[in-house]
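Researcher: We plan to redesign the surface later, but first we want a full-length starting point. Tokens attached.
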């Protein structure tokens, strides 16, 4: 399933799917100081679903993702995550890479932080998938912004469990080939039962 919602009008009423959903959002409201970022939002993220959060800059898309990830508390409403599912994998707009690590070390570090097993073959395969394997021994400080984004996104290709993914502007700084690879990785995750909530100011190139 591929659905869209926007912080200005994000209503996707909870339905019977809530019983099997990975994330259920009920009347969630987020604020920045005294300003309400968006009207109360309600929607369900089902296994295998890709939900695209849309809206203009400053309307709370990143705040909503951080709230879904448990990094911020909503001003009102509630978020219910399936007890059977592991915590969501949150990939922020910033790449969160350390300049003094190599590309391969950076990916291993990201996987370790997430509590995932470190498999050298999986690390190499993930870097190859995002066409950055040739720089595996290069220090992050030598990479372009697009290359840094590929390293951060390689974490997704190395992950096999059907966890919920929360992705903030994942297509930024990618060329056309990188966009196509990421779209395939997201679609494959959904096919194996993983759910995805993402923000993007660009059209999401993933077929229903």
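Model: Full-length starting sequence:
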């Amino acid at each position: 399933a591929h659905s869209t919602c926007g912080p200005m009008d994000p209503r996707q009423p909870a339905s019977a799917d809530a019983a099997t959903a990975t994330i259920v959002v009920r009347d969630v409201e987020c604020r920045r100081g005294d300003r309400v970022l968006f009207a109360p939002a309600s929607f369900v993220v089902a296994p295998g679903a890709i939900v695209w959060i849309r809206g203009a800059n400053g309307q709370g898309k990143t705040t909503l993702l951080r709230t879904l990830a448990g990094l911020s508390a909503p001003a009102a409403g509630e978020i219910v995550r399936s007890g059977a599912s592991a915590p969501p994998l949150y990939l922020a707009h910033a790449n969160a890479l350390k300049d003094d690590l190599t590309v391969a070390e950076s990916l291993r570090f990201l996987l370790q932080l997430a509590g995932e097993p470190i498999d050298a073959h999986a690390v190499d395969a993930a870097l190859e998938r995002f066409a950055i394997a040739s720089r595996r021994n290069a220090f992050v400080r030598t990479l372009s912004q697009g290359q840094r984004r590929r390293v951060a996104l390689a974490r997704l290709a190395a992950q096999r469990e059907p966890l919920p993914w929360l992705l903030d502007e994942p297509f930024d700084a990618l060329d056309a080939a990188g966009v196509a690879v990421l779209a395939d990785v997201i679609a494959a995750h959904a096919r194996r039962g993983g759910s995805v909530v993402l923000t993007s100011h660009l059209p999401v190139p993933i077929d229903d």
